[in-house]
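Supplementary notes for students who missed Thursday's class. We covered one full example, reproduced here. Read the sequence, then the structure, then the short commentary at the end.
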Amino acid sequence: MLGCILGLIVHNYGSEPYKSWKNLGAPPIAIKKLLVADKDTIYVQSTDDRIFSCYRATQYDQDCWSQVDSFSPVWEDDPSCLPLDDIPPEPEGIIDRLINRRCIDSPVLRANEISVYILLRDGTVMQWISDPGDPNEVDLF
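Structure (token representation):
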């Protein structure tokens, strides 16, 4: 049981919620559209129809754009989860947006996670990730 609690603490430390939008930069080719995303990875389609992905699991990951042949299924947005009240103000010039809300309801954790990705006019992708669960939402027993 102690191992489970320590694992949850370590996971939540690495998943510390962002206080502001994080700049993921852009792939080497201009982006046509945001395709799909989950908490840690976004897939985009370039103007020459290639697919690029950016994996950023923690605030400390920096370089992330890689060309890929395809993408794995990701969890889909669940609008019944936590509302989007705590997102910091968005930057100007948004041309595309992906929002994923996920409800977590397991024997050791009840919480909500939200990840939002936006594409700006200048080709930059920004990421914001919520807290995986406030203390009153986490149910360890």
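Commentary. Residues 4-15, 133-141 have pLDDT under 50 and may be disordered. The longest strand covers residues 94-105. If anything here is unclear, bring it to office hours.
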